[in-house]
């Protein structure tokens, strides 16, 4: 591949799609791992069609919940189209986890001998357009003096390396725990819910991009929300959790505003 060659064909989807572009809510939703597509040029990265439907390729159920949540809140939502195996849009470009050669225990042959020019093409055509659109929207809202609350929507597997995960949902943050703390209080009011506090993951500058760059660096109220995938695999669960989170977010956002 040469530096001036395109990764994406003209008839392939754009790097992202936006829902509720004119949403009036202060909430601003991102879904970094919404899609599982791989550009034709990459020949499925040598990964089977079955594996491309697993969590290694995308956050199962996250896009559906994010879309319902955005509708419920009247919130701007941006969703990444391409699989995280092409390039992870929630990892700093050039980092070890940006373009992985091994995901969980699955080899990604198309990433094992990637040339620098090929990595740059993925960054240029997948990562950058998505994040450029986020920056443009956040800049616009700042110019309008609009309150913005960043919600990064993800999902996690019920079992990881043979260990069952007990959490129904996890709340993620790093330096600023305000919104996560308020949500934790709201959700734990239901004694049947197991809510993770920086579980099953936590946020850091080296392992994340969206929250450090947009939440922390811009000083926005923010939280990462991780849904357990078996709870949101079907529409009924997606509706239930979008409603539950909408109520909790509205309550938490109002609490912190006062």
Topology (SSEs and partners):
Elements: E1 16-19, E2 27-31, H1 62-73, E3 76-80, E4 102-103, E5 106-107, H2 116-143, E6 149-156, E7 159-160, E8 163-164, E9 169-172, H3 178-187, E10 195-197, H4 210-216, E11 221-228, H5 235-257
Parallel strand pairs: 2-3, 2-6, 6-11, 9-10
Antiparallel strand pairs: 1-3, 4-5, 7-8, 9-11
Helix pairs in contact: 1-5, 3-5
What about the largest sheet?
A: 7 strands, mixed
Tertiary shape? globular
Number of helices: 5
Order of helices and strands: EEHEEEHEEEEHEHEH
Report the span from N to C terminus: 55 Å
Derived from helix and strand composition plus strand pairing, the structural class reads: alpha/beta
Number of domains: 1
Helix content: 25-40%
Radius of gyration from CA coordinates: 18 Å
- What is the total tally of β strands? 11
CATH topology: Aminopeptidase
Poorly predicted residue ranges = none
Task: Please give the oligomerization state of what you see.
Answer: single chain
């Amino acid at each position: 591949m040469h530096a001036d060659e395109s990764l994406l064909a003209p008839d392939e989807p754009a790097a992202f799609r936006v829902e509720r572009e004119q949403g009036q809510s202060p909430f601003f939703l991102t879904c970094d791992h919404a899609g599982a597509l791989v550009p034709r040029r990459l020949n499925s990265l040598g990964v089977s069609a079955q594996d491309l439907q697993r969590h290694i390729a995308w956050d199962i159920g996250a896009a559906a919940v994010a879309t319902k949540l955005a509708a419920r809140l009247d919130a701007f939502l941006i969703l990444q189209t391409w699989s995280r195996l092409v390039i992870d849009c929630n990892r700093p470009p050039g980092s070890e986890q940006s373009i992985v050669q091994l995901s969980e225990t699955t080899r990604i042959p198309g990433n094992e001998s990637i040339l620098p020019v090929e990595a740059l093409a993925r960054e240029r055509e997948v990562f950058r357009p998505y994040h450029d659109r986020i920056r443009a929207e956040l800049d616009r809202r700042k110019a309008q003096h609009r309150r913005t609350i960043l919600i990064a929507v993800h999902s996690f597997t019920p079992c990881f390396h043979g260990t069952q995960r007990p959490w129904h949902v996890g709340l993620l943050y790093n330096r600023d725990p305000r919104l996560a703390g308020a949500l934790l209080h709201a959700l734990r009011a239901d004694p049947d819910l197991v809510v993770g506090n920086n579980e099953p993951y936590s946020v850091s500058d080296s392992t994340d991009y969206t929250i450090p760059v947009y939440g922390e660096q811009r000083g926005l109220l923010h939280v990462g929300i991780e849904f357990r995938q078996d709870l949101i695999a079907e529409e009924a669960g997606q509706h239930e959790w979008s409603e539950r989170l909408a109520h909790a977010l509205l309550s938490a956002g109002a609490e912190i505003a006062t």
